Amino acid sequence: MTGAHFYACVGLFRVFTVSGVLDSFIYHGQKAIKKKMEIEADNGLLPEVACYLQLSSISAPKLKT
Predict the structure, then answer these.
(1) Is there a contact between 56 and 34 (Cβ–Cβ < 8 Å)?
(2) Taking the domains of the chain in order of start, what are their residue ranges?
(3) Quick one: how far is CA 24 from the chain centroid?
(4) Rounded-to-integer distance, Cα 42 and Cα 39, Å
(5) Contact at 8 Å (CB) between 37 and 50?
(6) What's the pLDDT tens digit per position in 35-65?
(7) Which of 18, 32, 49, 63 is the most exposed, fewest CB within 10 Å of its CB?
(8) What is the pLDDT of residues 8-39, one digit of tens each?
(9) Full-prediction pTM beyond 0.70?
(10) Nearest-angstrom CA–CA distance, 55 and 30
(11) For every residue of the chain, which 3-state class applies, written as one string?
């Protein structure tokens, strides 16, 4: 394995690691916000949130890869 090949692999693994961390951050952040909105809607604090949650439960079409 040459030095250039090694550094190319290291760079590729860094890209996957960073993208995985960002994906996890976005996923868990969105999940926490949605849970907070559901709690506030159940408490009657934000009645307009109930409408948003009903609309957001409609799943988007999945893209074929």
Answers:
(1) yes
(2) 23-57
(3) 6
(4) 5
(5) no
(6) 888 877 676 655 555 555 555 555 555 556 5
(7) 63
(8) 999 999 999 999 999 999 999 999 888 888 87
(9) no
(10) 15
(11) CCHHHHHHHHHHHHHHHHHHHHHHHHHHHHHHHHHHHHHHHHCCCCHHHHHHHHHHCCCCCCCCC
